[in-house]
Structures are given as C-alpha cells and as structure tokens.
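We modelled the chain as a single entity of 178 amino acids. Its sequence is:
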Amino acid sequence: GIYILIAVGAVMMLVGFLGCYGAIQESQCLLGTFFTCLVILFACEVAAGIWGFVNKDQIAKDVKQFYDQAFQQALMADTSETNNGKAVVKTFHETLDCCGPDNAIGAITPLWREDLCPKKDSIMKVFETSSCHRKIDELFSGKLYLIGIAAIVVAVIMIFEMILSMVLCCGIRNSSVY
C-alpha cells in the first residue's frame, strides 16, 4: 500500500508540474498533457470509488485482518520495545477509540497492556471500550457517506481544474502574438 501511495504522489507531482509549467510558459502542448492526465486520474478515481463501494464488505474484512496481524505483532513485542505493529495498533486505538479485537484476549488487553490502549480514567470505562472490529464495521457502514463526500469534493475540484486548463489552452491559441 505504501508503494502505491508513493507512486500516486509522484504522478500527482508530475501532473501539477505540467500544469504550472505549462501555464507559465503558455504552452498548449503541456496544458493539453495536463488536461489529459487529469481526465485519466478522474476516470481512475471514479473507477476506484465504484469498486470501493461495491466491495466495501471485503475492504472492511481486509482492514480487520490487517488490524489483527498488527495486534498479534504488538502483543508479541516487549512493552519497552517499539515496532511497526505497536504503532499501527496505537493509531487504530486512538483514531477509533477502541481496544482489541472481538476475542477474549482483546477484552482483557486494556488490563495488562496499558501501552497499547488509550488511557481511561476509571475501571468502568475500560470495560465500556468497544472492540476495534465493531468500530471498523461502523466506519465502513455508518460513515461511508463521509468518504463519499470527500470523493465528490475532490472530483469537483478536478473538474474545475480540467475546465480552467482548457480555457487557458484555448486562450493561448486565440491570443495574438506580441
């Protein structure tokens, strides 16, 4: 997943460079390439959104499986040492306000591994903490509209970018040479 994010970031940097440099140099070729890249990225975003909506149950299952692997890795580590599993688990716990998976080990984890779960004021709040599996399910079922709204906002911004790049490209073509 990290390599995909790095590749997408590099492509976005290249596309942004094409747009900025094309606008500064008033180059129709660079602005046309910028527009074409935006259309391709827009199509990929729409395809990924549709795929994600259709396969949301599978994605939630994969996220829970990833969490379980990180949780096991964090449990195997010593309390003093730091590892990737512990960092991932702590991020899940702090973001979703949960602690542990849906099994017995997850239920008693706050009592013997205080370094993994968010700090609670009283012992009653420790037992009120819900499992991360339940919180992940709630995120993908109840909060799916927030992900959709973010995707729509990004899509609208990309549409404006495409419109403005074409307006600039046509304006360069129709402008008189000094």
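As a brief sanity check on the tokenised model: DSSP finds eight helices and no strands in the chain. The radius of gyration is 23 Å.
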